[in-house]
Specification:
The structure holds two protein chains of two kinds.
Chain A: H1 8-16, H2 29-62, H3 79-108, E1 115-122, E2 125-129, E3 135-136, E4 139-142, E5 146-153, E6 158-162, E7 167-171, E8 177-182, H4 192-204, H5 212-215, E9 225-229, E10 241-247, H6 250-261, H7 269-279, E11 305-307, E12 313-315, H8 318-326, H9 349-361, H10 367-372
Parallel strand pairs in A: 1-5, 4-10
Antiparallel strand pairs in A: 1-2, 2-3, 5-8, 6-7, 6-9, 9-10, 11-12
Helix pairs in contact in A: 2-3, 7-9
Chain B: E1 10-13, H1 31-35, H2 40-68, H3 82-118, H4 127-150, H5 163-166, H6 171-198, H7 211-243, H8 256-289, H9 297-310, H10 326-354, H11 363-386, H12 388-394, H13 398-428, E2 430-431, H14 434-460, H15 475-505, E3 507-508, E4 547-550, E5 555-561
Antiparallel strand pairs in B: 1-5, 2-3, 4-5
The chains are: A alpha+beta, B mainly alpha.
């Protein structure tokens, strides 16, 4: 940490050189108006702050006297002056309120014909519902067209925040909240070579969860805007992020939806299951290395006996896994809380079958893995 | 007349020094004489020690937060449980600071010591209730410690449902602690209301009270009216957790936003419990150290009451994004703006008090100046958050974190320190090193700004609150903030050392070291256990005309013109009516 001592001039330089910005990129119709209002308020604040701070230091310098000297004046009050400084700032306040409230109403009134996308928040991830059973954690929308998000949460309160759009709304369990925005900057697509290179690197690192921060584009090669959870929701609150991609044409958007909607014919169920494991929020709670997280590890999970919270045991076969995905609170492994959200209606039968196929590959009981893993490495069961 | 010399031929009024048997610190000995004391001054000192310990613990937690955030992936906590550790640390930092430090800091620690002395009274109205509220504070603190030892607390200090009804950390222990602390707060408030209403000395009308008493009175009203709502809310939360009564948890047909309404109905007024006493301290500090009558006494007094009442109507601005109807949201925004007016009035009045004064740049004055600077920033940035459209972007980001730290730390903590430095000679009868005190004020000011100014920019760039790890583009500003927090911590340590050193080697304090005109300066330093031998005559609390600096003894004294009996000679003849009886 102390190595960064040397970087202090650099840090200051970075912050106060020409690169300095108050805001992230403006990428929605709200952004320009919001930033304008922010700076208006800031300038009004400066207008008040400079005289206040100025008087503060000037009086200290001017009227600082040795002990024992009397004050030059002992005026107790001056009603007109006091009324003036009580009432005059109120005009600024009214102006801020009115502009802010009008702009807010605009942000809360969804235009006719907005594209509707469902959003489901859970600990700790997002599922965007594009209709017809097509779900994906990334939010893909169209440029210059209003998008409405109908939002619900399956556990605790979350909050959707897209800084580039200057838009935020809490996602509250037990009610539907909505928000809308109209993106006016389309996401670029990185070149095919760059994407190819990143994918190779990704495979070399052993796959797993795609690191958006590291690559700065989505696995499909789009630049993206950050979407954060801004209502504290527990352990992985700070990684409950996803990407917002703005497509420039409907064709492009449809092509992407087509690509993610179902398992491509050239992909094995195991590979598709691994992708779902990383994309759909499994990886946040279920490890692959046997370590205990919020939920039991998937390592050596398939095919083994499981001790449940009601002290019965059950074999984790295909049907048990399927039930655990669809009705996760029914058969909870002992030592864990019933906190997993149900994936009913969110995963197709093929998806679930793919996940089961993938789980078999990380268990010695899986027929495929059994062939690959030498018997010597068999670990003792828990 | 030159400064530092007393006018010749005048009479000097000074109470001198207390004897050890009079001094409230030494008049009885032994630990039990403290634990069972009913003396409001000793209870005040015990509170002072208690809140300082709580502040030390929560401050160390704050440093852990900042150090962890030095790197995007987290620097201190590592491994699978890193985020859980971080969540527990920031929760305890918030909960301890709010419930154990800021709320009792000024009203309970300084208020207990000062309210009766400023009134010229012997004690508060209910001394036993006073001791009881101190022990409730201790028990509440013990509950927090036991929550920490059991399975920690990871809900954030706001206990938002349904997270708090589903997490397996010790929510019930912690909420019980907060519930008990609430009673401590209610008892203190009740005690002060009765004391100020019934025990003012003859001649002290409402508008001849020191402004610190006005602020304490307004605070007490909020404590008595708002804190029961917190108690009810926390009980409902416990009931929801244990019995699933279905009021907050959507799984049982409750509504989590209801909890937020209940919670902020208390906790927003609580913000004014935290800041109003600070206003009172600053009003007195600015006036005394400028040796000039406070400007616009009535406006300041009324604005305290206005803030106390308006503070009850603005809780909804914590929930602008929670999903209230647009109409409700807009109404809360409008109400929120109204509360900024009385705060602004006070700042203008303080500046006008300094104008053409005779300012002594003592340690308490340095803290008071620092307060005005920092609180003004804190107040003005509230406008960005009260404005609905900009709040949609800034809500729950570091902008909010910076805003309320400017108000709570730059405001309340700095005022509390200023108050402690101001009344320290009165409380312990010792003068501290002025150079050390001013140095601490400067370090705290610089460290504070370095910590929290970058956070405004972090917030407007979109960095969300309560993140254990963050995107690399925010790293530089987070690092500036961490360096600042260490400077701030060092400044606070200097302040503590300066004060503690004075107890050992400080010069004996005169009764009136600063030239204050309120009643507490008319008894000895430290006061005798009975405060005043006889009820003092009440003058104007802000009339400094008869206070003179005595350079020889380094003290201020009240000077009265020499009195002589006129006529000097006895009349020779008997008055005619002298033998009326005949």
């Amino acid at each position: 940490m102390f190595a960064t001592m040397n970087n202090i001039p650099y840090l200051l330089g970075d912050q106060f050189a020409s690169k300095f910005t108050w805001f992230p990129e403006q990428a929605s119709t709200f952004a320009a108006e919001n930033d304008w209002l922010f700076f208006l308020i800031t300038w009004i604040c400066v207008l008040f702050f400079i005289p206040i701070a100025g008087c503060l230091f000037y009086f200290c310098w001017k009227y600082s006297k040795p002990k024992g000297q009397k004050a030059e004046s002992n005026t107790a009050h001056n009603t007109p002056l006091e009324l003036a400084w009580s009432i005059l700032p109120s005009f600024f306040l009214v102006a801020m309120f009115v502009i802010g409230a009008r702009s807010y109403l605009n942000q809360r009134t969804v235009p006719e014909g907005a594209n509707n996308i469902g959003l489901k928040a859970f600990k700790w991830g997002w599922t965007m519902d594009y209709g017809e059973g097509i779900m994906n954690p990334e939010l893909h929308i169209l440029v210059n067209e209003p998008t409405k998000l109908s939002m619900r949460s399956s556990d605790v309160i979350h909050s959707v925040f897209v800084p580039a759009f200057r838009a935020k709304k809490d996602v509250v369990p037990g009610r539907y909240n909505y928000m809308w925005f109209e993106a006016d900057v389309a996401s670029e697509k990185v070149s095919a070579e760059e994407l190819e290179k990143a994918k190779r690197q990704f495979e070399m690192n052993g796959g797993g969860v795609w690191d958006y921060d590291e690559w700065q584009f989505t696995p499909d090669g789009y630049r993206f805007f950050d979407l954060y959870c801004t209502e504290y929701c527990g352990k992985n609150h700070s990684v409950m992020q996803t990407a917002v991609v703005v497509h420039s044409t409907v064709e492009d958007l449809n092509a992407w939806i087509e690509k993610v909607s179902k398992r491509p014919s050239d992909q094995t169920p195991e590979a598709w299951g691994e992708k779902l494991y990383n994309q759909r929020g499994c990886a946040g709670c279920h490890s692959l290395d046997g370590s205990k997280r919020v939920g039991p590890s998937f390592k050596e999970s398939y095919g083994n006996e499981r001790l449940l919270s009601d002290d019965t045991t059950v074999r984790a076969d295909e049907d048990y896994i399927r039930n655990s995905i669809l009705y996760p609170k029914k058969q909870v492994v002992k030592g864990y809380q019933p906190v997993m959200p149900s994936y009913q209606g969110q995963l197709s039968d093929d998806d679930i079958a793919s996940i089961i196929a993938y789980l078999k590959t990380v268990s010695d009981y899986g027929p495929k893995a059994a062939a690959e893993v030498p018997k010597a490495e068999e670990t003792t069961e828990e | 007349m030159s400064a530092g010399s007393l006018p010749s031929g005048s009479q000097v009024k000074d109470p001198g020094y207390p004897t050890p048997s009079e001094n409230y610190l030494t008049n009885s000995k032994g630990i039990l004489s403290w634990l069972f004391t009913l003396d409001h001054k000793r209870i005040g000192v015990m509170y002072l020690i208690g809140v300082t310990v709580a502040f030390g613990v929560a401050g160390l937690l704050a440093l852990m937060i900042r150090l962890h955030l030095f790197q995007p992936d987290g620097m201190i906590f590592k491994g699978e449980e890193a985020n859980n550790w971080y969540n527990q640390v920031f929760t305890l930092h918030g909960a301890i600071m709010v419930f154990l430090f800021i709320i009792p800091s000024v009203p309970a620690a300084l208020g207990n010591f000062l309210v009766p002395v400023m009134l010229g009274a012997k004690d508060v109205a209910f001394p036993r209730l006073n001791l009881c509220s101190f022990y409730l504070w201790v028990f509440g603190a013990l509950f927090f410690v036991s929550a920490l030892c059991a399975s920690g607390l990871d809900t954030g200090w706001t206990f938002y449902t349904p997270y708090s009804t589903t997490t397996d950390s010790s929510v019930i222990l912690a909420t019980s602690g907060a519930f008990i602390l609430g009673f401590s707060s209610i008892f203190t408030g009740l005690n002060f209301i009765v004391t100020i209403n019934t025990m003012r000395p003859p001649g002290m009308t409402w508008f001849r009270m020191p402004l610190f008493l006005w602020a304490t009175y307004a605070t007490s009203i909020i404590q008595v009216l708002a804190t029961p709502v917190l108690g009810i809310t926390l009980l409902l939360l416990i009931a929801e957790r244990t019995m699933h009564i279905g009021i907050f948890d959507p799984e049982y047909n409750g509504d989590p936003v209801t909890f937020q309404h209940f919670f902020w109905f208390y906790s927003h007024p609580a913000v004014y419990i935290m800041i109003l006493p600070a206003f009172g301290i600053i009003s007195d500090l600015i006036s005394v150290h400028s040796h000039k009558r406070i400007f616009g006494y009535r406006f300041i007094a009324y604005s305290s009451i206005a803030i106390a009442l308006l503070g009850f109507l603005v809780w909804g601005h914590h929930m602008f994004t929670a999903g209230m109807s647009s109409l409700t949201t807009i109404i809360f925004s409008a109400l929120t703006f109204t509360v900024s007016v009385p705060s602004a009035i006070k700042v203008f009045n303080w500046l006008a008090t300094m104008y053409k004064g005779s300012i002594s740049l003592t340690t308490p004055m340095c803290y008071a100046l620092s307060f005005i600077f920092l609180f003004t920033i804190g107040g003005l940035t509230g406008l960005h958050l009260g404005t609905l459209a900009t709040d949609m972007h800034l809500h729950d980001t570091y902008f909010v974190v910076a805003h309320f730290h400017y108000v709570m730390v730059g405001g309340t903590l700095v005022a509390f320190l200023g108050g402690v430095f101001h009344w320290w000679p009165k409380m312990f009868g010792k003068m501290y090193s002025e150079a050390g005190g001013r140095l601490s004020a400067l370090l705290v000011f610089a460290g504070f700004n370095l910590t929290f100014l970058p956070q405004f920019i972090l917030g407007s760039r979109g960095m969300p609150r309560r993140y254990a790890t963050y995107d690399p583009e925010f790293a530089a500003l987070h690092q500036m903030s961490t360096w600042g927090s260490m400077l701030l911590g060092f400044g606070l340590l200097v302040a503590l050392v300066v004060l503690l050193r004075s107890l050992k080697s400080g010069k004996r304090a005169p009764a009136n070291p600063w030239g204050g005109a309120t009643l507490e300066w008319e008894c000895t330093s430290p006061p005798p256990f009975y405060n005043f031998e006889r009820a003092p005559s009440v003058g104007d609390p802000y009339d400094f005309s008869d206070l003179e600096w005595d350079a020889e003894d380094e003290r201020y004294v009240k000077v009265e013109p020499a009195r002589e009996i006129v006529p000097e000679e006895q009349p020779e003849a008997e008055p005619v009516h002298a033998d009326d009886s005949k």
